[in-house]
Amino acid sequence: MLRKIASFTVNHDTLKPGMYVSRVDGDCVTYDLRLKVPNAGDYLGQGALHTLEHLIATYVRSSPLTDEVIYFGPMGCRTGFYLILRDKVGKADALKLCLEAFAFAADFTGPIPGAKRRECGNYRGHDLPGARREAKAYVNVLKGCSEGSMEYPD
Ligand SMILES: [Zn+2]
Q1: Domain that holds residue 117
Q2: Ligand 1 centroid from CA 114, angstroms
Q3: pTM for the whole thing?
């Protein structure tokens, strides 16, 4: 019998763009970085999603919090990303890190890190202008977030 995993129990019909605590496993906190309204017909383009993966992963792993970063990667539904940090990083600092990372991506002029053929599984599948556009929009979303807005809606 397959278990229904916690992130599938979130009501995606009431989820708005934002930053949420998805789950906590021991000292690892998974953040849901939701850029798009689920099932609303507007999704991150595959190329923009891929480029943002490279840019944000590189940024957070180059930041002073690098030792607390476990993972950053895209959701298959193309409405956002997951960021896993150690709980040593508080929610306010996690939010600050995301704001800085997406501001970095919004202004990034290239070359895209890790996007050479031998470094990436689909090195032609990038869209920097799209990534910049989506990052800029998400910075505005994050500016409206706070420690108190990180719980999923009912
Ligand atoms: Zn890649």
Answers
A1: 15-138
A2: 7
A3: 0.95
